[in-house]
Design a protein that fits this description.
two-stranded parallel sheet, globular
């Protein structure tokens, strides 16, 4: 747990300073409220590219790699800027919100320090991280195990932040950093809404925090495994939020969306956001720069895909470009794509081809009915919130009759992303960024609405106090449960990592 905390701070610092360096070099101005968040997500993108590129030539286990990562800290006053930016942008001033953030951080550290038992992590995700650590990319490795073809940039980034030369374990700390920053961002939004008497935003952000905390496939899965789903959703949500920034830059949208795609192909529809921005707001020279940037970012990812599978975008059977002995047939790759679809529709884990085809070929109304019944209560709530917030977004847009250049591109991408997700692999964890996008749109737009200055509930125990106290009590109860059943003396110091 102690080591997790140290590497959490170090990882977040490294990501921030790389992002800050690129913002400064590209003369992209950001307000103080945006500084940390923008620098952090750009830093993730840059380090994804660096780690992906390095693994084409060498492994990531060497301590010299980490010495290189600290080079941007020599740039001006990086450490001071890091801590001041956190204090200004993420650290709450309210005692209750600060308490909730502190307890949440303790929960994350306790979960991260315990054993990793997630089946996918133990089955193939650790293998992919090991390949990145060693720098080996066996040709046609997908023929050994089909899941080894899912070599997204997340696994290179995870290897980069495994600190393997110290821990000797195939695990990562970048997941812990991303989730911590995400929670701090949400709770800072809760505090701002509270201070501005914005009840809608206050309830909305609390709702998002609770959904992320109590749905297993969000925070708990991300922290207790090496799975890419929640980190990829983090990037997808980052694209949608940044698109609503009136000071947005096309190259940053391209950078984030293409990086997100290299993490998880389910985020392919987010490419529409930089495309629509470029069409409406930027000229031909900017088009050329953004296309070159997209090619540069995606090249290491595509090369590794071809090495491993013979396909540019595995497991899309249409993306085959090699006909060598190690390349699986289009038929076999289609079977893998159908298996993913069957699993997402009915949580079907069997590899029986006849049963898979039966599920895949079901009429829409039949498989959707079965899929809905199998969803948990929290998953059904997320889907219902998507439709409610989507309807309300269109309702208020029509009612106010205000011109809003972001509305249609944002909602078109959201709806297209939802259809894409529902058709290909409707597992909630694969579509998080699209399912939350309409609610986030309403919350962010609500922040920008002028509101009357009303007296704050500083002296009385108002309903907002009670809501936060209830959430604190629930998270604290879960912390106690984790400490009692999932903690020992060893995990206080060093995370246990994967079992076996």
């Amino acid at each position: 747990m102690l080591l997790s905390l140290i590497f959490l701070i170090l990882s977040t610092y490294i990501i921030f300073i790389w992002g800050r360096l690129f913002i400064k070099q590209n003369n992209s101005k950001s307000t103080s409220q945006e500084e940390f968040n923008l620098a952090y997500i750009i830093g993730l993108c840059v380090l994804c590219f660096i780690s992906n590129s390095l693994t084409l030539f060498t492994g990531l286990a060497s301590p010299w790699i980490y010495a290189g990562l600290l080079i941007p800290s020599l740039y001006r006053d990086a450490p001071r800027a890091f801590f001041l930016s956190i204090q200004k942008n993420l650290w709450p001033t309210s005692f209750l919100i600060r308490s909730l953030l502190s307890i949440s951080l303790l929960v994350l550290l306790v979960m991260h320090a315990w054993e990793i038992r997630h089946p996918d992590t133990l089955t193939y995700q650790n293998n992919l991280i090991e390949f990145a650590l060693s720098g080996s990319h066996p040709w046609g490795i997908v023929n050994i195990k089909s899941q080894l073809g899912y070599g997204g940039s997340w696994f290179s980034l995870s290897a980069l932040f495994s600190y393997y030369f110290i821990t000797g374990k195939v695990m990562t700390f970048v997941n812990l950093s991303m989730i911590t920053v995400g929670i701090a961002y949400l709770l800072k939004k809760v505090e701002i809404a509270w201070q501005e008497n914005n009840a809608f935003s206050f309830v909305g952000y609390i709702l998002v925090f609770c959904m992320a905390s109590f749905e297993y496939t969000f925070i708990r899965l991300a922290v207790t495994s090496n799975a890419p789903d929640t980190p990829a959703a983090f990037m997808g949500i980052g694209i949608f939020i940044y698109f609503l920034n009136k000071r947005r830059k096309g190259w940053i949208l391209t950078l984030i969306s293409v990086t997100a795609l290299t993490m998880k192909l389910s985020l392919t529809p987010t490419l529409a956001l930089p495309l629509l921005h470029l069409i409406r707001h930027e000229g031909k020279s900017s088009w050329i720069k953004n296309i070159l940037l997209a090619i540069l970012i995606s090249t290491p990812f595509l090369i590794k895909n071809v090495f491993s599978t013979g396909y540019i975008l595995y497991p899309y059977p249409e993306s085959k470009i090699c006909n060598s002995a190690y390349t699986p047939s289009v038929k076999d790759v289609k079977k893998e794509a159908d298996y993913i679809k069957a699993y997402a529709r009915q949580k079907f884990t069997s590899r029986d081809e006849n049963k898979i085809q039966h599920i895949v070929q079901m009429p829409f109304h039949r498989w959707v009915a079965i899929w809905w019944v199998q969803l948990s209560i929290s998953e059904k709530s997320i889907v219902m919130i998507f439709f409610i917030s989507l309807f309300l977004s269109f309702y208020f847009k029509k009612k106010k009759h205000k011109s809003n250049q972001e509305f249609w591109p944002y909602m078109e991408t959201t709806i297209f992303g939802f259809i894409f997700w529902l058709n290909l692999a409707p597992s909630i964890r694969f579509g998080t960024s699209f399912l939350l996008a309409p609610l986030l749109y309403m919350l962010i737009k609500s922040e920008n609405q002028p509101r009357s200055h009303q007296p704050q509930e500083s002296n009385n125990l108002g309903w907002k106090h009670l809501v936060v106290i209830l959430v604190i009590s629930t998270v604290a109860a879960y912390l106690i449960y984790r400490i009692i059943f999932f903690m020992d003396t060893m995990s206080l110091l060093i995370p246990k990592g994967p079992v076996g």
